[in-house]
Amino acid sequence: MADRSDPFDSITELFERLSRQLETAARSWDAEMDVRDGGGSRFDFSMTHSSPSLDLADEGEEFVVTVDVPGYDTEDLEIRLSGETLSIRGEREHEAERGGDGEHEQYIRRERAVQSFNRRVQLPDSVEADDVSATVNNGILTVQLPKREPADESTSIDIE
Question: Is 139 left (phi over 0), alpha (psi -120 to 50) or beta?
Fold first, then answer.
């Protein structure tokens, strides 16, 4: 008897795709929970948004944040420091046209599209905002945040 395709192949593929999407959503939820500002956290259920891995290290005189950003150019990234919260955004688009003659390729499977992310991390201490630096090398964004020196001044408080 000739080999017949399994009628449940499409259902299995659907469950695998759903599982991948739920894993992506869970990573997005974890990333949003990193923000400890007490405000209403918003959850992004869009599958076009994914959260890259982020490490925050205390290296003595500075904090170092490392983020995996493969395929992002420096123009695709935006970094902001607001108080003790570091925000990193990235957005890239796929090429609209491919091929030398201007015709669109016939994709058999296409999963890459517009991708964006937004990560925020609460820093443990204040940093010197003017001395923060960032570099991208081989798809890894490194942000160096020198710690602010604690003030040695003390203030006497009178008791009423």
Answer: left
